[in-house]
Amino acid sequence: MPHRITSREGIQWKDAPMSEPTDTFVFTYKDHFVDIRSYKTPTATQTVFPFDWAFYGEVVRPADGSEPTYTHTIDSRYINALATLGEEKAQIYLLPDNVNTVENEQGDEVEVGEMLNPDTMDIEKFVEIWRPLHPLHGSQKTPIGRAELCEHDFSDDEKTNCLVLLIETDGFKGKLIKIGSWTQAFLQDTSVDGTAGLTAVRAAKIDGTNEWKHLVSWGAFTDSVPVGSDIYAQFDGVGASVTVNKLIWKRIL
Predict the structure, then answer these.
(1) Distance CA 45, CA 49 (A)
(2) Which of 127, 183, 191, 242 is the most buried (most CB within 10 A)?
């Protein structure tokens, strides 16, 4: 499938129990992804930036067919560490993720690998459970079953209305991915230090209507993120550019 939406159902570090303190969704279209992990119940300290992690980048797929690597173009942990720890120590957050993924009996994806544990600041083994979601059911987290995969041609990008946008405005970086009834975007105002310059949006279309609901909306530029059923018509081809509240978005896929 060239496009996919997955929600994380749990993470386990080393021998700790499996838990899920966040609402984590990853949108992937071809070799582009946006990953936003908002806290379910942020503490008083976490409300300043209510995300465990938010980042976007590209998927690098080796020619030999081995597991892909995920690069990070903008990374909230790196940006926060840059402001508090300095450039040299912050670089650890930009290391690409290398993982192995298998499917379990429930149809979920079990991801195993090693990465930096932000609580211990050590590289540790981890296990994550990811659930593929139906791209055309935005009202709820509807898993994609094997039978549905056989019945529906989710590889038809035109039918599912997929696109990738990048910000063209000077002083900003950002990526938006729309897949069917879902949209997710993450962007940075580079003139603002730390996480205060970040904006994160996740929105979904309510089933049976043309109404879209923001599930995540945080930052100074949420009104500059295009959301809605008409976005595919606005960006009517690769290369199309549209200005949304002073930010210029360009369609690249």
Answers:
(1) 8
(2) 183
Query: Which residues on adjacent β-strands are paired with residue 247?
Result: 244
- pLDDT score at 151: 43
Cβ atoms of residues 4 and 123 within 8 Å: no
Whether residue 75 is found in the same domain as residue 195: no
User: E strand or H helix at 101, and its extent?
Assistant: strand 97-103
CATH value at residue 143: 2.40.128.320
pLDDT of residue 19: 97
Cα angle, residue 156 at apex, residues 216 and 178 outer, rounded to 5°: 20
Tell me the CA distances in angstroms from 79 to 73, 74, 82, 193, one per residue in order. 11, 8, 5, 8
pLDDT of residue 161: 85
**pTM for this model (two decimals):** 0.92
Contacts of 138 (CB under 8 A, 6+ apart): 180, 181, 182, 204, 205, 206, 207, 212, 213
Same domain, 29 and 135: yes
- The DSSP 8-state label assigned to residue 79 in this structure reads H
- Non-local (6+) Cβ contacts of 208 within 8 A are none
